[in-house]
Amino acid sequence: MADRILLIEDEPLVRDLVVLNLRHAGYEVRTAGTFAEGEAALAEAKADLAIVDVMLPGGEGFVLVRQARDNGLKVPILMLTARSDVQSRVRGLDCGADDYLTKPFDVAELLARVRSLLRRASGTVAGPPKQLELGKFWIRFDTGRALTHEGEVTLSDKELKLMELFARNEDKVLSRADILEEVWGMDAFPTDRTIDNFVLRLRRLFEANPEEPARLITVRGRGYLFKKA
Question: Which residue, 96, 122, 148, sits at the end of a domain?
Answer without folding.
Answer: 122
